[in-house]
Amino acid sequence: MSHMYNLAIIGAGPAGIATAVESYLQGIRDIVLLEKDQNHNSTIRKYYKENKRVDKDWKGQKVELDGRIYFVDGTKETTLDFFDEILANHSVELKTHTEVQKIEKREESVKEPFFEVFVAGSSIMAKNVVVTIGRMGKPNKPDYKIPTEIKNRVGFTLDGCVGGEKVLVVGGGDSAIEYAVDLSAKNEVCICYRRESFRRANPTNQRDIANAIMHKEVEPILGIDIVSLESEDGRVKVIFNDIEPQTFDRVIYAIGGTTPSVFLASSGIKEEDGKPVHDDNYETNIKNLFVAGDITQESGGSIALGLNHGYAIACYIQKNQN
Ligand SMILES: Cc1cc2nc3c(=O)[nH]c(=O)nc-3n(C[C@H](O)[C@H](O)[C@H](O)COP(=O)(O)OP(=O)(O)OC[C@H]3O[C@@H](n4cnc5c(N)ncnc54)[C@H](O)[C@@H]3O)c2cc1C
Fold first, then answer.
1. Residue 1 has what pLDDT?
2. In angstroms, rounded to a whole number, what is the distance separating the alpha carbons of residues 291 and 229?
3. Which residues are 166's β-sheet partners?
4. Which neighbouring-strand residues pair with 118?
5. What count of other Cβ atoms lies within 10 Å of the Cβ of residue 242?
6. Which domain covers residue 296, as residue numbers?
7. Which one, of 11, 13, 24, 14, lies nearest residue 315 by Cα?
8. Which CATH number belongs to the domain containing residue 227 in this structure?
9. Are residues 31 and 130 in the same domain?
10. Which of 65, 234, 277, 295 has the greatest number of C-beta atoms within 10 Å?
11. Is residue 187 within 6 Å of ligand 1 at its C-beta?
């Protein structure tokens, strides 16, 4: 523990990369980007299906980009290439396989306070820290129990999906619709959503799911709640509140992610209404400790919003500290 970074960013998703690159472009040097996974953007890698269309205006939210990162509509693959390229073109140190456990501010007997960022077996020092760890590290789970015998048939991503199965997708947002429509090419698919319509989804996904339902490629189970799951000869028996149970080979929940409250609390970051408290510059209750990206949003943000948060933080740090 000897080098003092100017800026440490925790989580190399869109918001983390944007904070790093926009800071670099503002003239800030000595930036480290800490990522727990083996590569940047683990949310995009794990949760986006192959060739997924990536919308800049995700969930229909129109976002004007404030910074210098020019992000446009594309696919999962072009988006990952785009982030590879901007990381390669700006001198930002990316440390992968580095999971941050907590952050502590050190202000005792030093002229300039700094942060100690704890990773397995060691720590990193930095004058400013930005937390951009997203919400998908912990996807939302149902509040009923998933029996052990069927755990390998119940998931939160498309991992393990093969063709020829009867699959239930749970959720009614964009991710759930995209999963259902994609799976319907090779599987018998039902989508279960507690509301009566897919009004929360963006217009393209609303059109896609309406088409899939019209062509009987996806069977809708709308306005219905799931009460519990049971094992039936190793398959998943789904008990609904208002209709007869049905048995599936696989159930996929696409119901968003949760605020990483334990991480925030262990670092002293205050939380209110399911979000970390921050001001207009994304600074938390602790000076020089910021939050950006999905973690600041109650029900998930978007890539473009994360890019804008990164730009705002970079401007603020540059203005206040140089
Ligand atoms: C299925 C799906 C489809 C989507 N489609 C779109 C779309 O088309 N367009 C769009 O704009 N948005 C889309 N989104 C939303 C978008 O992916 C998110 O808004 C965006 O990824 C949030 O960026 P972020 O940087 O805040 O967090 P994330 O992308 O979640 O990145 C957080 C990073 O932090 C890392 N991390 C977590 N904990 C730690 C730790 N303790 N230490 C170190 N690293 C850590 C993670 O491994 C991850 O790499 C979609 C989301 C999903 C789930």
1. 52
2. 37
3. 188
4. 102, 123
5. 9
6. 4-137+257-321
7. 24
8. 3.50.50.60
9. yes
10. 295
11. no
Q: Which band of pLDDT confidence, cut at 50, 70 and 90, is reported for residue 138?
A: confident
What pLDDT sits at residue 168?
98
Residue 56 domain-assigned (yes or no): yes
Which residue of 76, 133, 299 sits with most ligand 1 atoms within 8 Å of its CB, as the best mutation to test the pocket? 133
Position in ligand 1 atom list of the atom nearest CA 257:
53
* pTM, full prediction: 0.89
Q: Is residue 97 situated within a structural domain?
A: yes
Q: Provide the number of structural domains found in the chain.
A: 2
pLDDT in tens, 207-244: 999 999 999 999 999 999 999 999 999 999 999 998 99
Nearest atom of ligand 1 to the alpha carbon of 256? 53
For residues 28 and 84, state if they share a domain: yes
Contact 63, 305 (CB under 8 A): yes
- Say if residue 285 is in the same domain as residue 222: no
Are 192 and 262 in a shared domain? no
Binned at pLDDT 50, 70 and 90, residue 110 comes out as low
If pLDDT is split at 50, 70 and 90, which confidence band does 131 have?
Answer: very high
210 falls within a domain: yes
189 and 280 assigned to the same domain: no
Distance 43 CA to ligand 1 centre (A): 4
